[in-house]
Amino acid sequence: xxxxxxxxxxxxxxxxxxxxxxxxxxxxxxxxxxxxxxxxxxxxxxxxxxxxxxxxxxxxxxxxxxxxxxxxxxxxxxxxxxxxxxxxxxxxxxxxxxxxxxxxxxxxxxxxxxxxxxxxxxxxxxxxxxxxxxxxxxxxxxxxxxxxxxxxxxxxxxxxxxxxxxxxxxxxxxxxxxxxxxxxxxxxxxxxxxxxxxxxxxxxxxxxxxxxxxxxxxxxxxxxxxxxxxxxxxxxxxxxxxxxxxxxxxxxxxxxxxxxxxxxxxxxxxxxxxxxxxxxxxxxxxxxxxxxxxxxxxxxxxxxxxxxxx
Length: 310
Prior knowledge:
It comes from Flavobacterium zepuense. Residues 32-283 form the PBP domain. The protein contains 14 helices and 13 strands. It is α/β, with parallel strands linked by helices and 310 residues long. It folds into two domains: 33-120 and 260-296, Periplasmic binding protein-like II (D-Maltodextrin-Binding Protein, domain 2); 131-256, 3-Layer(aba) Sandwich (D-Maltodextrin-Binding Protein, domain 2), CATH 3.40.190.
């Protein structure tokens, strides 16, 4: 019996050594690895309106820091907020900070949020390419959201009833609930593009980043819609002008439907969440923002080489 035990333990030790040498252990390297600002594992919840730009930044971040494993989960604003409140997420990208009420659980735990502003986004109003209306007055949009009839706006199409685009416009219109007539919420941004392409006279509302960086499969929809100009009574000074959500109009405050994007970090430590927030706000990250069509929080510097040719 004693000899059998000796043989058993020797065999177990030999198998263990072989597993370690071949790398087939029961614990993966990322699980056992201590999380730092540039290494470890993290699930990042992202408002779908910011999905394209975060994908771009994460692709570069992960190529630089190969020990950092960040999983991007795209959800509407309401779902992202709920994930933070229920502690199924500790780091997220949203178009607003949490309210005091939403932060109650973290306050009880003594966790102070680290909120990082990294870009200014805008809502784009799109219509069918064949439409004769190329501009729209914001007050007419607000009328429809308030449940009133508009002479110029027939249908408003949103990506999702719980999205940040809806919440921003409801706030601007001074209402808390979506009107039951002439306002429609679909499944996602792709559905908005498709609906507007197939239904002349409708106005779709999407994040401008999706216009600049649409997936290849959406190109057939994007080609058949046009971006509408929107008035801005705060800067017009009696002269009616219309502005499109170009980078310069967003940066100059001419386009009225803008919002800031933030990284919300509730980890309570200097982990991957802080590493990602640091990267997206440094010069490399801000250059990616600039190329995406959004406005970076800090404009990257541009060096000009002067050559003295004689």
